[in-house]
Amino acid sequence: MQSLSLPAIFLATTFLVSCAAPKPGTTTMIPTPTGVVEGVSQPVDGIDRTHLGDDIPVFIVSSRSIEENPLPGAIDPFGTERSHQRNPHLAIAKVGVGEGLSSEQIYWETVTDVKRKKTHFTLKEVKLEQPMTQLDPSVITPDDLPVGRVNHPWLTALRRQLDQDPDRHIVIYVHGYNTHLVTNTELAAEFFHYMGRKGAVLSFEWPSAGKLLAYSEDKNRASQSTRLFRGLIAHLASLTGAKQIDIIAHSAGNPIVVNALHELRLAESDRSSAELQKKYGIHRVILAAPDMDLVVFFNAVYDRFYEIAGGVSVYASPNDKALNFSSMIFKDRRLGRSIGELEDWETRVLAGVREIEMIDVSVAEAIYGGGSGHSYFHRDPWVSTDIGMVMKGFPAQARGLTRSGEDVFWEFPEDYPEFLRGVKRRRQ
Known about the structure:
- The protein has one domain (6-427).
- Helices cover 37% and strands 17% of the residues.
- The chain has helices at residues 6-19, 34-37, 103-111, 153-162, 181-194, 215-224, 226-240, 254-267, 273-280, 294-302, 321-330, 344-351, 362-368, 376-379, 381-391, 416-427, and strands at residues 56-62, 64-66, 78-82, 89-97, 121-129, 169-174, 200-205, 244-250, 282-288, 312-316, 356-360, 409-411.
């Protein structure tokens, strides 16, 4: 890595401070997605209003180390170093919601655009389970592995959670740089809340150091976690009976997801896309502000990594200051900041792959953005609306996005809320 001048270090520090996650224990309910405010079909539709204060379970799969001597009263049993175990660590967390608030107040803050929300998501417990030593995460799942063959407490709890949802839907969240397990788990619980608390949510915890100046260290640790994530998605559907698995990756977590899917696609190169999607149950992959070399992404595209999923949505912003810093460090183009930087041939390649959507969030960010322009996937209510509709299976045009000329990027129209109101009117 090249050394940076003092001005560059100052700018980098400013940008990275603004892209870091909140301090643990301070997670407030995200801004309500515009689609929820406007009453458009979203995962929150049909939510049970009477038990919104109930704890939310978050299933954790982690390549972090385990603290041998945790601090007294510590809730998080994980460390910041990478684990040297063959199998990932497993845990089940409980996240409290809106302590001291009524279910009606939590619901009101869930579905309205109130700015100062009092609903907090607070990690209350993390229960460690033994790793699944019966499975080798490097081995591809056989086709005839029946649900229930592997008997394990973590799996039993996950299956029981899915039994309450006819769709047997799982969302996997893969966090970014400079984050803490506590905050990541609380954010995963928020996703589950806006799923209508149906199905299950998993948080894949790779060992971010949680330090501002550990960027290169975090990037290295993320790349070392690819094998364990590949093992997770290779076995998850067959072991749980999940019918729909959606993956949301943010920032430095994106290469883990893309590279794992890439490797799995290469390992099963003789299978069709339909066969892979039936076997692994991966419905949609959401790549938010991906801190990833654009060339590495195109390498995966050439090998058809996207065929293992029903679709891939890439969210990017030309104003992402954190990824501008990343480009300075690596001297390359980053996928999450590729608007206006694609070569003609790259545009043609992406235009020919119907399974991949490239989405420019700059219009939405001009209205709601702030800071580094890097965390819009949950802070910008237009973008979070679109992500919810992606998981519902709507194509870009049906979600109200537009595209001009030969540009491969979809955009939010300036009258996006009016489009959503039109959707509601047509359904009434």
